[in-house]
Amino acid sequence: MTVDTLEQGNGRAEPVRIYEGRDIEEMRQVVGGRLSPHRLTVLGAQRTPSRFRAFHEGAVGLYDLVYGAPVRLLVQELPDFYNVVLPQAGAGLLVVNGTALPSPLCVAGPGDVVSMDWDHRAVNGSLAMSRAVVDEVTAVRLGDVPREPLRFRRPHLDRADPAVRSWLALVGAFRQFLLSPLALRPGLGVRHFERLLVDTLLDVHVHSWNDEVPGLGTTMLPSALRRATEYCADHAHEPVSVSDIAQAARVGVRTLREGFRTHLDTTPLAYLRRVRLDRVHHDLTALAAGRATGSVTEVACRWGFTHLGRFSAEYRRVYGRLPSDTAKGRS
């Protein structure tokens, strides 16, 4: 039978039981609809029920699968997502694009052809990352949305590599987070965790864009600098990171920093801070002229200055007087 309701018990989140039963064909259809269509051949008698559960479904999905029988799966061409196979029990053999892998722990992406043989004891996790979120994370590194899907240069993840083990521990922490009471509360924690998993996998495993980020160079074109400064002006009232500015400029973070240093003799965030300080000065001048109402504190907070002591010192350094003097029209 299929069960589509999220269970909660004792204040903890529980995995969604998408399928549980002994109909392997129905299991194949459900898994195919959720992840990727595939062919399935049963190689022996079923010994335990099949099970398909979702711990999370979003830009990054986390599942576990149990077929309960020896099976062979063939995915002719993986659609627009990346699948990290996380074997937990039993044994299996994976072949990706015609190459047999040393172990089933692997990652495959859009267009890859994947064959999997599992014994009846196999329990496997699946971390499914949409191409959209991988493109989004890659765009922050490259400064622009990639024109073609990122490809991992080898599918096998080597558990002997300490960095890979650390990344797997992070996946385990994600699972524990999803089962915690915190996961039941609205917030951005899950979204940030999704992107952390993608970002760190790109740090751990070699892929087609590895050489692009260091090779972007340090020459920043005037058009890119204009896009960066316009973004700072348009978004000065919002929380902005250096990655946000780089993405708006369509360059890498390294190139952005070098461009600001070369052409403006400052850093991107220092430039943004000066833009915000100029907006504060404008609003305080309006207060002095009677064109606006409010207080120095309200104006400072409006433009992101929450530490008033540091704000006053910086304002005085730039404008030669305290912000309260400007607000009162004193020179």
CA-to-CA gap between the ends?
Answer: 78 Å
Mean pLDDT: 88
Low-pLDDT regions: 1-6, 213-218
SSE order in H/E notation? EEEHEEEEEEEEEEHHHHHHHHHH
What percent of residues adopt helix (DSSP H or I)? 40-55%
Major beta sheet, strand line-up: 3-5-6-13-8-11
Radius of gyration using CA atoms only = 26 Å
Main sheet attributes: strand count, strand direction, barrel closure: 6 strands, antiparallel
How much of the sequence lies in strands comes to: 15-25%
Category from helices, strands and their pairing: alpha+beta
What overall geometry do the principal axes of the alpha carbons give?
Answer: elongated
Question: Number of helical segments?
Answer: 11
